[in-house]
Amino acid sequence: MGWLYAVLTVFITAQHYLKGPGSYNNYLIFVKPFFNLLSEKNLYLEYPNYYQDTYKYSPTFALFMGPLAVLPTWLGLFLWNALNNAVFYFAARRLFPEARRQALFLVLVLIDVLTALHNAQANCLLAGLMLWTYIHLQNRQAAWAGLCLSLAAFIKVYGIAIGLLFLFYPGFWRNTLWAAAWLALLALAPLLVVSWPAFLMLYQGWYAIVRESATGIQLSLIGILQSWFGFPLRLRGVVQAVGLGLLVFPVLYRRAWGEAAYRRLYLASLLIFVVIFNQMAESPTFIIAVAGFMFWFLHYGRRSAPGWLLFWFVFLFTSLSATDLLPHALREAYFDFYKLKAVPMVIAWMVIQGQLLFYHRWPVAGEPADSVLATT
Fold it and tell me: What is the domain range of residue 121?
């Protein structure tokens, strides 16, 4: 599978580079703010001479994109796509003890990986870092788990949600202190190139742009409720609060914290949750949710007819909906308007949450740990 991911990375990078800047505008949004950072400019204004749209990521992310920003665009774009795919690919290779399931997982998520790659987005990188957080926790590597969590959070704020997994592993306070130390260090990293007043201005700008962007509605549960039932958008916070409550409630079942099956279920739930309750989720973002679903499916869903039914629902409505196999007119009239891409993931999350909420009655709950990771 490694050769396939590598070839597709090269091919798609070349395709978009040859089309011109409009085809890799997202990459420009990621790298060009580095130069504004060095000049102590507000990163969160419009800079049409560099890119279209506005930068919505952290000052730390702008700093870390510096090594790519100084390279020729064709090389930087390739390395950026390669980094995204490599972090995700090698995490996937560590999720299962058998090479067969590793390869199958990589095949099942491939369409969504390509969707993210075609958009030069950071979603594969984010998904990979969240998976690596889980892997390092499994292997009792607190410092690495904290670093992966922190990097995820500084790419997209909701990446910090993976920190809920810290509850289920020995050494909670040690793990949390490592994560807090990394978060503080990465937050302060821009001070290497900017003054203190500029540093404060940058974080104020980041906070403002995140709040402003939270007013839109895209592929999410809130989007479904709004387009199907006219749900008032002013109450979107209520939906998110209920979702967070449902996510956290199974944590009260402390007797299950040490069980591999419970941890796997909670990882799958988290990966889906951060997408379907993110009101600004876009099509490339769904690699995170699909990775969570396929992780669940390969462990539990493929053992039952309802699991296979849900698999085909996700594959057809979530994964294939972003491809040319879906007629453009159909996408515009139904899939985009009714947010159909998100519907299977909402149902999948409800199923997984049900298994968590009634974990003590779930027949599979007592299965052996079965060497959860390839290195365990």
Answer: 1-213
